[in-house]
Amino acid sequence: MIGTILETIGQTPLITLPNTNKADEGRVLFKYERYNPGGSIKDRAASYIIAEAERRGLLKPGGTIIESSSGNFGISLAMIGAAKGYRVLILVDPKTTPANLALLKGFGAEVIVVTEQDDSGSYHKTRISLANKLAREMEHAFRPDQCFNLLNSDAHYKSTAREIIEACPAGLAVFITAVSTGGQLGGISKYLKTFAPEAQIIGVDAVGSAIFGGHKDAYLIPGIGLGWTPVNLNMDHVDRAYKVTDEQAFLTARVLARHEGILMGPSSGACALVALKIAQELSPDQQIVCMISDGGERYIQTLFNDEWMEQQGFATAADIETLRTMARQLQPWSMRPADHANYRSDLIESLEVPDTTLLMNAELQGREAYHSGNSLYLD
Ligand SMILES: Cc1ncc(COP(=O)(O)O)c(C=O)c1O
Questions:
Q1: pTM, full prediction
Q2: Are the folds of 5-36+159-332 and 42-146 the same?
Q3: 158 classed as catalytic
């Protein structure tokens, strides 16, 4: 194809695991989002929200995009800003890797590192409220607001989910992905519950995160988790939840690089471990699609650095059998995730969610009601 860089977003491949996924098990397919031009799945929601903001006149030439992001969403916005000529301001936190910071700056974004922790020990709330404050104070600013903007999950409802179903004409038994803003899991599960209701939906969180309830604690897996259940995710659509430890996530990503030749980040390592577990419970005619949200290059200084792994007290290598045993021993966190939903509508007021988000959400929900039952897609 010939087109702009933004036209290469989406249509990512499904990849098999010939060495770790055995022939007598369910068939694991990795939806490999590294092939998006910004290197992660976040290109999809970022490009969709920016296009919708332009269409509504909320973002105009000369405008500034302001967002809170630990990395990938910010990188996608920085790439889009560079391609379309917008100023981009990203609020990150100390967990953001040096590689991500360099990429943000490489695309010309301005970066603010928020170091104040919120009441759950993470940086989500402090990052979001500062981004909202800056967007209010700055002229011609637009906040994509991946956390509260329902267009985040809508992007996946319209693109990622449809791609998955089109690529699995023989049926889909299980879908697995990680959760933070709930964009991917929310949008894809909503689509699958309508158009592939036989598919079981599994959400993956970090031990220490509270999206599916449980105690809150510090964890190292970037891009995953939140201190509450995100509005983009309808928990009624999730059939099962797993929580994965830092070491399990990092080690799985390393083993799959070494034994499958597939690079991925730690959040994808967490999902891959769950996918290998589920494969052991299924038969070869059953397909499991597992999102691999980004590639491994952005974690060279952490995940793929032996010294860093040792400093955390993590094993640096394992063989395929050790990985398969680790998968077998994994226990579900919840078989009824909806019982643990922890929505925080009070945050809309306390974090001062922008009017533009509420406007976009209202319009989306109105359109959705209008189209329900007679259309595959919202427009
Ligand atoms: C690498 C990675 N995996 C998973 C996720 C979770 O996706 P979502 O925010 O759509 O829930 C993110 C989000 O930032 C991410 O960057």
A1: 0.95
A2: yes
A3: no
